[in-house]
Amino acid sequence: MLYQSMQGISIASAITVILLIWLGTLRNPLKAAYLFIKELLTSRTFLVLFFIMVCILLANKYELDLENNLNYHKDFTPWVFSLEGHFVENLQNFFHSSYITPISVFFYVVVFQSLLIASIGVYISDQNKVFVIAICFAIIINYTVAIPFYLFFPVNEVWSYPPSGASFLMLDVFPNFEQQYRPLSGLNNCFPSLHTSISVTLMVLGLRSGNRRLGIITTISAIVIIFSIFYLGIHWLTDMVAGTLLGLLASNLGILFAKLTLKEKGFSMLKQQSKMSDSM
């Protein structure tokens, strides 16, 4: 039932978000929702960054339409295959199990998106303003870097390239994937792997946030999701390496930009208060 429609996946994602926020804070998840709305209404910085983040996520959704209009027909899949050969096929054959497949699909389809939303909720609930801003910057950086590669360095998913020998195990659990989920994920949008880069980003932020529980959750999730991109026959090893580097870059730049933004904001407020004091 879970993988029969996007409605089922959306419900599962909502439940997962609530559970992850509770695990990350040990507080009522509804408090995070209230604080999120409050932050949007009271923090211009967060409002602007959140708006930009949503816009770039929507831009990624329409990237396929832009790609079709470009009339650009390069394919770098054979080159990637020449670098790594049958790595994915060998991994699939070694680990293939009727128990592992549904777990991998759940993390790839549900946990991946849920953890992004839940991380924002945890940081807001913790009143961790640096990481609330940092996660917005980091997601923006991830997609800003990845989308040009999807447009001009297209690499097809491993299973779709016959010489790879890999199978698309996603269909064993989610038979309607191509009809239900494919419009959100282009077949040749492989390099770099955003599932890897976003997972690594959330892991680094979680580990550096000071929230030990969230650090553990994001680390376990990143490991399982990265394993899943291979196990399900979707991404190449090359995609994962590039995604890891992008995730490390985006997370650390996100923290840096957040600290600089809040420092500048604090300096401006102090300067304004100083002027008010002088006028009095």
TrEMBL record:
This is Phosphatase PAP2 family protein. The keyword Metal-binding does not apply. The keyword Transmembrane helix applies. Its main location: membrane. It is a multi-pass membrane protein. The chain crosses the membrane at residues 6-24, 45-62, 99-123, 130-153, 186-207, 214-234, 240-262. It is found in: Membrane. Signal peptide: none annotated. Pfam families: PAP2_3 (PF14378). InterPro entries: Aur1/Ipt1, IPC_Synthase-Related, PAP2/HPO_sf.
